[in-house]
Amino acid sequence: DLTPPSIVIYDPASNQTVSGMVSILTVATDNDSIDRVEFYHNYDLAHVDYSPNYTHSWNTLDEQDDTEHIWYAIAYDLENNSSQTDPILINVDKRPVANIINNISSICSV
Asked: What pLDDT band is residue 38 in, cutting at 50, 70 and 90?
């Protein structure tokens, strides 16, 4: 088998602004079978998923506010053929989460 798999990140979209827990969602297909999908955050391996619905949960609360992050994924088939997604740029904005916490604090202190 010389045919590499195909893979795309379909959520979040490139240039999207996110906060909180974010699921990086992919679709990976192959003429035989997918072995694994590797998720890369800012060019470092962040997660390996061996089961279909290849996803990764990213906690953006661990990131600095108003920062840009590059994500891409690589799918491997059973013959170790691989394909990489186009990188996507994701913006982290924690203000919505901070505003919710501040609003809850204000309500609770009344």
From this structure: very high
